[in-house]
Structure formats: C-alpha cells, structure tokens
Write a structure and sequence with these properties.
alpha+beta
Length: about 80
C-alpha cells in the first residue's frame, strides 16, 4: 500500500547555530577519549549559551584532567569561530 498523503519534514541549522556547536564539542570529547584508549565508552551531552559550555554524561575511559578537556573544548569552539 502506497500512501498518497504525507508530510515530509526536515531540520536544517546554519553554521554557528548552538546545535552545531554542541555537536562539535561532544564529538571533540568523544575523540579525545578514543585517542587515548580506543575502547573508551563516552556518552556526552553538551549544552551551550552565551559564554558558557556545560558537559554532562557518562564516561568510561582513561583519566583525563579537567584542564585538558577544557583546553580541547575551547579549541573546538574557536575552530568553528563561535565566540
């Protein structure tokens, strides 16, 4: 049976949109842990607002200092020119 009536939707956000910033930051944290131990398990959620990034989630992997994580997150935000 083929449906004749349907609604197609999609989401698209522009560069610099907070959703893209959050995705980039989360990916950066995952990559950081995997680069140190390829069997790390990382569930990272990122929340952003003006001048603030909040990381939450659960990580099973090597000990990485908060300073190193912060450095990588700041670099990710700077790389996408979102300040």
């Amino acid at each position: 049976m083929i449906m004749k009536d349907y609604i197609f939707t999609s989401e698209s956000v522009s560069e610099g949109h907070p959703d893209k910033v959050c995705d980039k930051v989360s990916d950066t944290v995952v990559d950081l842990y995997l680069s140190k131990f390829n069997e790390s398990r990382v569930a990272c959620e990122t929340l952003t607002t003006t001048n603030k990034v909040i990381l939450s989630g659960e990580i099973r992997g090597p000990e990485i200092s908060p300073d190193e994580i912060e450095k990588e997150v700041r670099k990710a935000v700077e790389d996408i020119r979102y300040q």
